Amino acid sequence: MACASDQNRHRPQLLLGMYRIKPIYQGDLILEKPECVYKMKNLHSVEMEKEATQNSDLLADIEQRQQAILSRLNELKETLNQLAGRHGMSVQSSSTCLAPPIVRCTPTSVAESTVHIETVLGKGIVDIVMHADPNQPPLSLFVLYEIMKSKYQVLATSYVHSSVISVDKKLTTAFQNASASRRSQNQLALSFIWKKVDKDPELVVSPGQHIPIQGEANIARYLNRVMDPDFDNRDIVTATQVDEWLDIAQLQLIHGNSKERAAAVRSLNSRLGRNDWLVGSSLSLADIVTWSAVHQAQQADSAPANVKKWLKACAKDPNFKLAESLLP
């Protein structure tokens, strides 16, 4: 057995000091920098002020954007309040606004609904401008015009745009009563401009801002809600059914191909085989617009029995007299 002294004799000398090297540079060394080189701060001496400044700029930018959003919301709120005041409604805050209850009752026809004039339109006159092609007049708008005359004081004027060569005199005189009264004595000012349009008639709600509503069915929707602002809230099921027929009239009858038009007429005939009117038990907006679409699609002469019976029933309504006079 080896003794401890023998083991220590063969062990490396681990306790010797590490080697030393001369320093690469002196701490107080001063270097002369040429003037042609741009200067920058010592990275080791930069403080945290720069980061704090950047954070401050970021917060200021966020606050500025937030203020812009709040200003925009205030503008929208002011516009909404003006519209609500015009239509006699009150705007509730988001904390107190609750979903309105659905009230179901017997559907009311467009001609039967009665609403106070100032409640819907406000005290000032409302300007509505419509553009339409004289080769395809939107007949439903003449029916709605007759209904609106029975509810409001309406000033109607008709113009011919330079984009058309000539317009049938029946069209220009049908929508014209400007000599009957002064502008200030009316609640509605309707202007009908006969011109070449791309595809559909167009209604401009605010002539100054040029906010367009395109399509005969959509224009009819708007005018109907001017006359009856509670139309959607009264019975949402009936309102949905009316919208469905308006889409059929616009998309399949007016703008559809021969197959789509034939399918729409079949659906129309099937519905009228069980009912006198398209929606409900009386004439509605669906009947007015679809009646116009059937004539524009030239489907009236070849229509099946139920559709022809319905067309005759529509023609008996006094509000259709003006539109009937415009048929070829």
From TrEMBL:
Coiled coil: none annotated. Residues 125-214 form the AIMP2 thioredoxin-like domain. One of its GO terms (cellular component) is cytosol. Its main location: cytoplasm. Gene3D superfamilies: 1.20.1050.130. It is found in: Cytoplasm, Cytosol; Nucleus. It holds the Pfam family Thioredoxin_16. Keywords: Cytoplasm, Nucleus, Protein biosynthesis. The keyword Transmembrane helix does not apply. Residues 258-318 form the Glutathione S-transferase C-terminal domain. One of its GO terms (biological process) is translation. InterPro entries: AIMP2, AIMP2_thioredoxin, Glutathione-S-Trfase_C_sf, GST_C. This is Aminoacyl tRNA synthase complex-interacting multifunctional protein 2. It comes from Potamilus streckersoni. The lineage of its organism: Eukaryota, Metazoa, Spiralia, Lophotrochozoa, Mollusca.
